[in-house]
Recover the amino acids of this structure.
């Protein structure tokens, strides 16, 4: 499976952004672009929701509010927490249609804005922290410590039986036809592999004989990193938990195609790693 935005041209300017004067100068760059991120994590877009809609920087640069995403071929992109004037769209909508570089820019912009919204204070002493490094770090003057964005790891797993059928489950609260592969958060002190075995056992009752890592995707809702695996099930006796997963079944590619075309099943949105993993299986590119 292809890595997430493997051909992105976004340069996160790791060393240069340490210099606040340099970041401030970028705000005045004639090619600088600003994306507005609203309180629902929607991004300023064109009316169709298929393209990013940036504006030129206005007013003076303020490090506490203007976050440097990075540069693309020398032109800077910034993110601000603001309700965009005009149309906006969610990453779920944009992620499936944007070119890789723009998808990388938008995802990073949302992740930065979401972090600053929820973590302005030091988690140890409660001091209001200072934004530094163009928005990629906050500094606690009391503790004299750096604070970085938190990422919550989650595993998402394609489970295959001995006939290479794929397990798809229906989550409580979803529309009736929607299905996806199973996922869950990694607990404190838990390895990714242990999380895979635990989550699949809890949600489907299945044990696994083998598993393999296949790829990852940032998912800033608000701050997850989805880590994809493919695994082999021991047997096919499914026993869903009934609370989180209401039902689940194994499908062949032909069975899935028929039910999707008939409107009986709805697959994950194209912007998600779940969609990429399912597509790899349907095309015969997913092995364990």
């Amino acid at each position: 499976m292809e890595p997430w935005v493997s051909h992105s041209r976004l340069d996160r300017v790791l060393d240069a952004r340490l210099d606040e004067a340099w970041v401030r100068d970028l705000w005045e760059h004639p090619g600088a672009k600003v994306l507005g991120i609203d309180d629902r994590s929607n991004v300023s877009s064109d009316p169709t929701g298929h393209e990013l809609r940036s504006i030129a920087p206005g007013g003076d640069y303020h490090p506490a509010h203007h976050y440097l995403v990075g540069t693309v071929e020398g032109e800077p992109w910034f993110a601000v927490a603001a309700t965009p004037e005009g149309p906006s769209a969610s990453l779920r909508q944009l992620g499936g249609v944007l070119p890789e570089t723009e998808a990388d820019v938008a995802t990073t912009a949302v992740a930065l804005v979401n972090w600053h919204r929820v973590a302005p204070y030091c988690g140890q002493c409660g001091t209001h922290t200072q934004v530094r490094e163009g928005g990629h770090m906050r500094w606690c003057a009391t503790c004299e410590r750096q604070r970085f964005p938190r990422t919550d790891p989650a595993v998402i797993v394609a489970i295959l039986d001995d006939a290479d059928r794929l397990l798809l489950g229906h989550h409580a609260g979803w529309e009736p036809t929607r299905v996806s592969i199973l996922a869950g958060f990694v607990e404190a002190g838990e390895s990714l592999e242990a999380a895979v075995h635990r989550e699949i056992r809890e949600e489907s009752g299945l044990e696994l004989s083998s598993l393999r890592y296949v790829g990852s995707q940032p998912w800033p809702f608000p701050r997850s990193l989805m880590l994809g695996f493919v695994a082999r099930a021991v047997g096919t006796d499914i026993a869903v938990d009934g609370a989180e997963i209401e039902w689940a079944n194994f499908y062949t590619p032909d069975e899935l195609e028929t039910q999707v075309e008939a409107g009986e099943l709805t697959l994950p949105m194209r912007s998600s790693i779940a969609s990429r993993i399912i597509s790899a299986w349907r095309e015969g590119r997913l092995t364990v």
